[in-house]
Amino acid sequence: MIELVDPRGLAQRPEKPLAPRVGDRRRLRRIGFLSNEAEHPTGPHFPGYTRVLGRLLRERLGELELHLEIKPVLSRPAEADMIARFRGYDAVVNGLAK
Amino acid sequence: MDGLATSDESLPRSIDPALWPELSYRLGLTDGLPTFPPERAAVDRLVAASGLPADHRVGVIPPSGRTATVEAVAANAVMAGCLPEYFPVVLTALEAMLEPRFNLAGIVTTTHPCWPLVIVSGRAVDVLGMATRESIFNGGGARANLAIGRAIRLVTWNLGGAHPRQPVQEIMGHPGRLAYCIAEETTASPWGSLAAARGVDAPEGAVTVFACEGPQICNPWGVATPDGARVGERWLEMVADQMSARGNSNTHTMGEILVAFNPAMARTLAREGFTRAAIQAFLFERARRRLGDIRVHPDGRPNVDPGAHYEWWPETVDQGDPDAMVPVVWSPESIHIVVAGGDSIPCAAICPSWGHLGGFAITRALPPLAPSPVLRDDPSAPFARRAS
Fold this sequence. Notes:
The complex is a heterodimer of chains A (about 100) and B (about 400).
Chain A: E1 2-3, E2 30-35, H1 46-61, E3 65-70, H2 80-84, E4 91-95
Parallel strand pairs in A: 2-3, 2-4
Chain B: E1 14-15, H1 20-26, H2 40-50, E2 57-61, E3 66-69, H3 70-80, H4 87-97, H5 104-109, E4 115-121, H6 123-127, H7 143-159, E5 181-183, H8 194-197, E6 206-212, E7 216-218, H9 232-243, H10 249-253, E8 257-261, H11 263-271, H12 276-286, E9 288-290, H13 291-294, E10 325-327, E11 335-339, E12 348-351, E13 362-365, H14 373-377
Parallel strand pairs in B: 4-5, 8-11
Antiparallel strand pairs in B: 2-3, 4-6, 6-13, 7-12, 8-12, 9-10
């Protein structure tokens, strides 16, 4: 018999847990969109998708405050000041269109 | 198929070692290749070799966000086959990869097939018995090369949770993900080491991490070599041509690139007066593409429309000029040159990168290393260089 060490580390909670999930969607009033890319003419892009998504959300949930921010570099985490501008929003959708 | 299963099943505290292979597959603790069991005694030996406490926090491994302690990294290094003396190299490489500038979270999850190449330079190459010659990009037959590269892979797998499809979106994959580690020539390089050129000239040597694609080979076909003729510029033109392939990310996003010269090519270039800086300057000027040839409309016309401009290109590129010659890297110093590979016919290898998006070269000095017992105990060990 041999004693083992778990290569996944000790059972631990990730230091960066997922954001809390949205509960009752009817209570959503302020929704942010964090796009990993700017609009561009050479294919689908996430800002365009957020316009469609925003329209659908308003159809289903009524009046909403929508806010879009675009990251300067798609592969890097958003800077702290950009994240700060989403404080107080009920949900933030982050993405990239491929 | 969803690939290998992963499991939250607890690892038994102890097992019959014969059961390890199947248990490791069932728990998703390997990417498909078999591993050694992370046996407590072996893990403790690696931790001791690090000179750090077992619970010392190395960093948070993306994308899962789990904390890597020295002990957890050692467990993966044991699974990879690392000897204790390799472990400081693994830790140093991992620390470099965790610098924010490297953007490890992006590297491990991107659709692009790039992976951190660990480049070992200086005295460590000899002390650890690393291979520098034939088959260099697949280990060269040396345990240290592959075990160090494999340890990095398993850390990202088991602590980072970097599993294909979810969350790794890499479209085509990269054989180097299994193990990607090379060692630089210590004596056959006419230009010193990459690490020294980057300002890290440490007594034990150094580690450079650079996220890049697999090597694309450049053989100097078609260049006549009559006695006494200078051929260096013709060879470098071919290297520049390979660096600037239209589909390379670098060609559109710049960033950094790696060029490996084998000793034979390096020797000839040096004899013709090419220094490291001269090669970098030459390649920076020649590895360019005409804007109108790389950014086009569907009918082939140059696309210089303002909406098509790449916002990541520097202002020195006139994006309204279809005849602008666009460099494929940011600067001459963004071309990382190493000397490695078999000392045979002249040959170079080009490793494109993720462009401006991350994985930039980071170099760290190594701490003192103990000589490999493989060399200490068996001076006739095959493939390995001798410890000095």
